[in-house]
Amino acid sequence: MHADYKKILIVEDEQKIARFQQMELEHESFKTFIESNGRIALDRIIQESYDLVLLDIMLPEMDGIEICKRVRELSEVPIIMLTAKDDIIDKVTGLDTGADDYITKPFATPELIARIRAALRKNKTAPPSLNDSKLRVKKLVLYPERYEAHIDQQAIELTKKEYELLEYLIRNRNIVLSRERILQEVWGYEFMGNTKVVDVYIRYLRSKLDERCNQKYIYTVRGVGYVVKD
Q1: Domain range spanning residue 169?
Q2: Nearest-5° Cα angle at 121, 33 to 34
Q3: What does the pLDDT read at residue 131?
Q4: What ranges make up the beta strands (E) of the chain?
Q5: Which of 91, 98, 100, 113 has the fewest beta carbons under 10 Å from its own?
């Protein structure tokens, strides 16, 4: 095994599925571990050191959503949710609690590997804090180093993914961005996923920004995507 192999915890209660995932990942030179119990998995993620977690939603004792929520209070380890439910609400809930990505069962192994490598690469290349940087649009000010957004010096409560989406839109202000591009850049997908997630998060942001200050920030370009305008 190469010295810089990546350690992945597979949290899956179906033994055959977990073993298959383990075999495929070991073949790709990942070091893997398996846990079937949700509550024990939470303890292991917090106490042990992993480079990425594959987290099933349906688990005994504690489900994947709750695990992800609790892990995010202490750690930024990349988490990819695995779910048999092809339901946009489950996916949004998973992402909103801090998951980096989701994948719906059944899935092809090359797709899973691509998602894992994308999540690891994104975590490795995350930009360092920009000491005195601020991003401004109208009354809105973003502080990238603190993941904070303010309007008229009042903090706006945003989830991690909401903030990342807003920052991406602002850094590309006055550029119309397609849903597919937003999905790839903000969620780190290497292939086209369900772009409805983007629409859901745009609605979240509008409810917290546009409606709060009675000023429009995010514009829809019909048939194309979204843009933040000065």
Answers
A1: 135-228
A2: 10
A3: 39
A4: 7-11, 31-35, 52-56, 79-83, 101-104, 135-137, 140-143, 148-151, 154-156, 177-178, 218-221, 225-228
A5: 113
* % of the chain with per-residue pLDDT over 70: 88
Last residue of a domain, one of 124, 151, 176: 124
CATH at residue 217: 1.10.10.10
Out of 43-47, 180-184, 187-191, 198-202, least confident range? 187-191
Of 135 and 53, more confident: 53
Q: Which residues are paired to 87 by β-bridges?
A: none
DSSP H or E run through 186: helix 179-187
- Considering the domain architecture, whether residues 107 and 71 belong to the same structural domain is answered as yes
d(CA 104, CA 95): 13
